[in-house]
Amino acid sequence: MTTTEAATPTVPTFADRDKVFIGGRWVESTGNEWVDVVDSFSEQRVARVRTATAEDVARAVAAARESFDKGEWASKTMEERATVIDAIADGLQARFEELTAIGVAEVGVPVGVSHQTQQMIGGLFRAVAEVARNVSTFEERPRMGGGVSRIVKEPTGVVAAIIPWNGPIGNIAFKLAPALVAGCSVVLKTAPDAPLSPCVFADVVAELVEQGRIPEGVVSVLCADREVSETLVTNPDVDHITFTGSTAAGRRIAALASERIARVSLELGGKSAAIILDDADLNHVLQTLPMGGCLQSGQACIALTRILVSKKRHDEVLEALKAAYGSLPLGNPWEPTNFLGPLATKHHQQRVLGYIDIAKEDGAKVVLGGGVPEGLEKGFFVAPTLLDGVDPDSRIAQEEVFGPVFSLITYEDEEDAIAIANNSIYGLSGAVYTEDIDHGYEIARRIRTGTISVNTSAMDFSLPFGGYKQSGIGREGGPEGLKEFFEIKTVHMPA
Q1: Which superkingdom heads the taxonomic lineage of this protein's source (predicted)?
Q2: pTM (2 decimals)?
Q3: Active-site residue, from 106, 267, 400, 476
Q4: Angle between helices 226-234 and 247-258 (to 10 degrees)
Q5: What is the pLDDT of residues 411-449, one digit of tens each?
C-alpha cells in the first residue's frame, strides 16, 4: 500500500459540550459524566461531551410526548414541515467546514472523503423534503357495501432514533428528516464514540426553535451509553424505535421493544458479496470494487467484503486486486491526498486485527496487509488486507468485520456463486460484474439482498435502502423511508 506521513499532524480541537439537548434547548444534565472524543490519528483528546443520565432520557421522552400529544408540530401541513427540513439543510451547510473536520476526528475518515460526504448531507435532507411534498396523507375510497371511507396517514408518534458512530450526520438525515417531516417528535440517541456532529445538528435545531419554526419538545439529542440507552427503548411513551447498528444490538432492541409491541425499524449489519463472472471486464471491476469496499476504511455496513471469482480467473483477479488495494493512499487523514485513514477507536482496531488472526487460524492466506502498516504505528490503523483461500463457511466469510479486510472466495459455476452469495445471515448490499448487463440483472435478482449493483458501486441514499434477513427491517430513503413514520387509519363515514 502507499503510506504517507506528516511530521506534525494538523489536528483541530473542538469546544466541549457541557450540557444536554432536551426539547430544543441546551440544559444542565442531572449527572456529571463525560465522554472523551479522541482523534484516531494523533490519539489526542479533541473534545469532551456531557453524557445523559437515565433521568435525562426520561425528561427528553416526556418533552417529546407532551409536544406530540399537544399536536402543534404534527398538525402543521406537510409543506410547512418540509420547509423546516430545508432550513435544517441550510443550517448544516452553513457549518460545512466544521462538520468536515469533525468527520475526520470522530471516525478517522480522510478529509477529502469527509468533504465529499458532507457535501451530500444537505441533499439528503432536501430529498426527504421533496418526497414529502409529493405525498398525500389523505384519500377517500368507496366501501364494498356502499358509502365512502377515509384513509389517513398519521405520524407514528414519539420516535427514538438510535444512530451509530460511522457517519452520524448522514444517519440523522436518514432518520430524523423523515420522522420530523411526517410530524413525529424525536429523541436522538448518539453513539458515545461520535457525539460532536449530532451536537452541531442540535445547534441548528436550537436556532429554529428560537425562531419559532420548531415547537419546544419536538427534538432532543442525547449522548448515552448502552445501559442508559435501554431506558429509552423500554420507555412506554416511545411509540417507534429506529436503529442503525450491529445485528447483535438490533436483536436486543427488537427483543426489548417486543415486550410492548413497539414499532421497530432496523438497519443492521452486512457481509456483502461481489460476484465477478467469467466475462467481466477487469477494468470495470477495478474502477469500483476496491474503493467502494474501502469506503471509510471498511467501516461501512455496505462494504463488499466477500469477493467471488471462478477458479478459472482466480489468479488473474487475485493479482489485480492485490495491486489495486495496495495502491490506495493510506496515512494521515488530515492530508487531502489520502483515501484511507485509521479506524475510529483503539478497541475497534484490535477487534479487526483479531479477525485477521482468526482467518489465518482457519486456513486463509494473507496476500496483502494483515496488520498495522509500517510507519503508522501511532493511530488506529489497519492495512487493507486481502485474504485468499477463504472457506465460505468460515468466520471471516460469515461475520461482519467492519474494517478493510476482504475475502477472496472461489466458485465452481454461476449457481455455486449465487449459493455462496446467499450463504449469509445478512442481505444488505452486493454487486455483480459482467459484460452482459441483462444477465447481470438476472443474477442480481437471485441474490437475497436489499441493494445490489451491476458493474458499478453506485450509492444513492435518496432511494430506498435496507436489508433482507438479519440485515434489518424496513427501509430508509425515498417514499419508502418516509412511509416508515406513518400509521394508517381507516375512518368509516356514514353511507
Answers
A1: Bacteria
A2: 0.95
A3: 267
A4: 40
A5: 999 999 999 999 999 999 999 999 999 999 999 999 999
